[in-house]
Amino acid sequence: MDRLANTVRPYAWGSTTALPELLGTAPTGEPQAEMWMGAHPGAPSRIDRGAGPVSLAEVIDAAPGTELGADTVRTFGPRLPFLLKLLAAGSPLSLQVHPDLAQAAEGFADEERRGVPIDAAHRNYKDANHKPELIVALTPFDGLCGFRHPAQAADLLAALDIDELKPYADILRASPEEDALREVFTAVLSAEHHAIAGTVERAALAADRLADKGGPYAEDYAAYAGIAHHYPGDPGVLAAMLLHHVQLQPGEALFLGAGIPHAYLGGLGVELMANSDNVLRCGLTPKHVDVPELLRVVRFEAGDAGVLRPEAVDGEEIYETPIDEFRLSRFALAPGAAPRPLVSRTPQILLCTAGTARLRSGGAGGGAGVDGGAGGEAGAGTGGELTLPPGESAFVPAGEHLTIAGEGTLFRATVVA
Fold first, then answer.
1. Is position 281 annotated as part of the catalytic site?
2. Which helix (H) or strand (E) segment is 331 a member of?
3. Which of 162, 196, 224, 245 has its CA 20 to 30 A from that of 282?
4. Which stretches of the chain drop beneath a pLDDT of 70?
5. The one catalytic residue among 281, 327, 345, 358
6. Which pTM value belongs to this model?
């Protein structure tokens, strides 16, 4: 196993304090938005096996079968199929959606065929992979996730008492569900910014008033008014009003599958996703918004927001998702408890978020682990111990035996293969 040295990304929406508080470091005054753990080429973690720091991506490229295991390489190819992050949102992220695997492959091939530069501002697809993701709250966490039922969205818009929004409310009440959501979402995002900006501003003021009045939607209106404060006049503010406002408590999670519009508004969480950069933005951003391509990808399906809570299996709390590229779980480490064996045929990243986690490796080999898997191809570990304080993480090659102990919370990211 290897301690990871990770990169913190300073995106403008990042919190200036949340990550420093977790890591026990002094704030710099600059936003610290995401800490990446994995082998993504944009910011791969670094490890040191005695010859100096080296990129985890390079280590995996040199020996994918050893580091990832035969099952992972056979199913996903010679690369780590997931990316783990600590995400600290101090202000709203862009409203966005991710393609499914077929859409990503088709879109990437089309842009390659047309010669769109990979770093072009108007490029939609950075790779041919999908990007499902899971966010688990470490603090109270606000977000938008999935479409409300049209009748409920109509009530929210109607209560704003804005003349320009009344036709949208009528459509939401009168049309079939999918048609209604598609028509209103399309109309809002297709409008010229200068033509709709005034409507957005009036809607934001009305939302602020309704939030102060209280009622069942007061917190939702407060969230929409807050979004408008950060993105004045942005059509995405109206699009956001079609979506569920979700307030996660620590330990609760959201799974964002293909086609589900979403945005993170504020809070600190652990995020796990497939190893992709494919994002189609719907609004709340100065960046490129490709409405026709967006409409090809969005799933206009109303439903519940789908808050997830972990299921305990032999002391491991697992966040179940329909994705094979990753699985996220956590352990509540209790003082005085016997060290717990942990081995998997697939690679793992372990992240401590509270207290202290102690990892002891016995090297590679066969045997059953907590997931019932036998050790596959030999991992690279040769034994040793690591102590992880909050915010620190370790990469565990496939098949490596280790035990975990300590007092605190340890997240485990691995592959379903």
1. yes
2. strand 327-333
3. 162
4. 363-383
5. 281
6. 0.92
